[in-house]
Amino acid sequence: MPDDRRSLTLRLSFMQYLVAVAFAALAIGFWIFQIAQHEKFREMAEENHLRRLPLPAPRGVLLDRDGKVLVDNQSSFNIALVREQTRNLDQTLHILAVATNTDEAQLRETVNRRRREPSYRPIVLIENATPEQYIAMMARRWELPGIIPQQVPARKYPGSEMAAHLFGYVGEVREDQLQHADYSGIEAGAVVGQAGIELAYNQLLMGTDGNKTVIVNSVGREIGLPLGEEPPREGKRLQLTIDADVQKAAEDAFDASGFNGAAVVLDPNNGEVLAFTSRPAYDPNSFSGGIDRATWNALNADELKPLQNRAIQGRYSPGSTFKMAVALAGLEEGVITPKFQVYCGGGATFYGRHFACWKKPGHGTLDLRHAIEQSCDVYFYTVGNMLGVDRINKWATLLGLGVKSNIDLPNEVTGLVPSTAWKQERMHEKWYAGETISVAIGQGAVAVTPVSMAVYMATLANGGTRITPHLVKAIDDGTGLKPVPPPPIQSKIDVSPEKLQAIRDGLWMVVNAGGTGGRARIVGHDVAGKTGTAQVISNTGRLAAARSRKDLRDNGWFVFFAPRDNPQIAGVVFLEHGIHGPNAASLAHHILDTFFAKQDGKPLPAAPTHDDMRLDYKDPYARAGTPVGGGH
Amino acid sequence: MFERRLYFHIDWLLLAAVLLIAGFGLSMIYSTTYVTLPDGTGHPGARFWVQLYAVGLGAVALIIFLALDYRFLAEHSLFLYGGLVVLLIYVLVGGGVRAGGSTRWISLGAFNLQPSEFGRIALALILAMYFGENRRGARNYGDLIIAGLFFLVPFFLIAKQPDLGTAVTLVPVCFGIAFLAGLRLRLIAIVAIAAVLLAPVAWKVALKDYQKSRINTFLDPEKDARGAGYQQIQARITVGSGGWKGKGFMKGTQGQYKFLPVADNDFIFSVLAEEQGFIGVLVALGLYLFVILRSLEAARLAKDRIGAYLVGGIISGFAFQVIYNVTMSAGLAPVKGLTLPLMSYGGSSMIATLAAFGLVLNVRMRRFTN
């Protein structure tokens, strides 16, 4: 079979060629991967086994003006998930949830929210794990591939609710924040300030995360020693203008009173904030390790709105505390002099309508000093009517009312002092002169934030300079605390000292003579102040709403500075539903007492009890009262 | 039976190349299974020793299949074939050892034997005998049907284990022998066209879900990067990161840190590419190519058609397996449980392969005898 033989040889040759071609193709294939695309695959192999683990930087410590530590860091453990190392995600989450007694659905939601991120990046599932959770996780670690413990610094705040709104709180960076330029360079999962100083000074406080490079195998176990390590750099320490003792006094006073509200205390000469509180508050510590959903929901659902920073976000009618702005406007516009006298017979008629004074029998004839002391409504109706709303607006604004204080805290709201232009713009209506009468005693559309009231008092105290309240005194960039110059002033008015003195005298008389602020008196320190009681609802409206469960009691104010002739402290205490301004003066007393005791080197007064406050709970408007009329 | 002069006709070059490849394989298994203890010391993994014993047993098998005249073996191929079928049935009816979802092994106490690995030898012997003796070659449809039946019995028994990968290696053995025996080119063309047309039907009817997903994954590995596509992507990274010279013996990261699964088995060539680089790949491919071409040369030199067909069948199966596995090692073919003969970890495969090369040497050595 020669033919057969030839065919066989041919076919064997064919097979040999076929195999040779296949091998040549294989060699080319390997050449492409190993030589042509080597760099790409080399990097991929490195990404596989070299892992840069973040070393979170501690946030900067917050100190008070004396150097006392207010906000610190403590070590805590997070439990995190590296998805690329998991085999069965559902099972892993289930085992972890059972072992650590956490909500499986919430874990899953956390993972889902971050599913678009690279799968090697750890997702924090349980922040600030308890020792029990940590032990339970470690004990079942072999069942939990991809679950890793992370040691992280967590924020530690002083007392349960002390200065909560001032400090704010920290939390994981939100997705919408990541889009923002301020957050460039910050990765998902990073902990950033979310309110208060933590938010306002986040850039300084955050520090720079370090990292270490380790070799890991396919299940994420670290092999050998780290290849390299870049230590984290702690955030900058901030020295605040806050005086921890004065701050504590404000907190203690609120605690003793049982009222909600806000207090802001400033150095009127430069705007340094000495104390700042808003009630009700929350415990910022509950955020520092990631707040649990129940607590967060409760805070949001609370009708009293504990998350609201009333000091900069609450707008309230100022009532009688507004009268100094009208007085200054009258004096500076030349409409009145300190000697200008008005007769109060318990009320007066303007534009065909009767406006009552809070004191039904009337005050008789009063000059400006006594009008302020007695808080006579008729006097200020008269001056306000002579001025007109726009001139009141001008001077109130120069004193800091109806505008932002520009304090270095986020989300401050603007108050309102009405004007003809405002009404035209907002309501497309003409201003009626009769409306000015209510404005003159701080009612009507007037609405102010507590912080702006503090600026108002500081401006009256320092002779017309509208300082900018601020919270940071010095920054430590690693080489020691460097003082920060105070922010530029907002405006300055030239007030003749004699005219201003008349107002200051009136305020001094409120506290030290026959006025309503006697409870704030401190012997030897010439406290000047003014109470205010502002309706939450008109008296007729209140009758109608009597059956509702809403708290409709009046708000109480006390604004102050001291000493009268060389002021070193100015501020405001606002009591939400505090019924009477004098109740606020009781709180201010403790604050002032503490401030001056410290200044004089005396022992600080003990925290007041509820009885020390001598609060007046009599509600004068609980029944139908006079239809209109400012508080005292 | 073994005449002294035959000794001088042994193809030492081929034998050396085969053993060199096996040595390469041993060193890669040593590298991938080396156990490092926490104190920094270590020792070779158990699999290295198993493979070393397998090479030893394989050498014995090689000598046996070299010493016995291949014609004698071919003449008794029906017994060998029958014995194999019995073993395969025994595995299926419950005598086998289960592992990893399939039943492929028979326990022999010290180790488990995988009879299916010997299927190619038995099939090659019986088909070489059938086509070599009938003097008609493979031109007759009746003969092809009988040959087909010889093929189908072990094919189904092995596929049923299930071990489609090993079963499929019977196809090139059968096809290679039929091709050398003069299978009409027209018929090849018809089968090829029919295969293309029937592929969608096979997809629907014959393939199991995991097999479909393997193919789907191959076509788009990124789609399932965490699951089935993982191996393929990791295989490319392993190979590509090797570069020219490789990362060095036992210094690969992909294999050492277990990013690439079954590194000592299906993906051993990837690890070789990673640690020894493109140069190592060229050396290994060169050795394999040399072994295949040299063996086909032995078929050409064979004194009779039985010998030529026998070598052709064995080498067809061998070449197919090498080419497929190496392609898969670079992530260029669907991942399949198909080992790289002579290199992958696997005792039965090593013994069977060395025995098969015993037959190749046998045919060449006896080219002058009558």
Describe this structure in words.
The complex is a heterodimer of chains A (632) and B (370). By secondary structure, chain A is an alpha+beta fold. Chain A is 37% helix and 20% strand. Chain A contains 23 helices and 23 strands. In chain A, the strands form seven sheets. In chain A, strands 2, 3, 4, 5, 10, 18 and 19 form a seven-stranded mixed β-sheet that branches. In chain A, a hairpin with a 5-residue loop joins strand 2 and strand 3. In chain A, helix 14 packs across helix 16 and helix 15 runs parallel beside helix 21. The radius of gyration of chain A is 34 Å and the shape is elongated. The N and C termini of chain A lie far apart (131 Å). Chain B is mainly alpha-helical and 370 residues long. Chain B has 14 helices and five strands. Chain B has a three-stranded antiparallel β-sheet, with helices on one face. In chain B, helix 13 packs antiparallel against helix 14. The longest helix of chain B is centred in the last third of the chain and has 34 residues. Chains A and B meet through helix 1 and helix 2 of A and helix 8, helix 11, helix 12 and helix 13 of B.
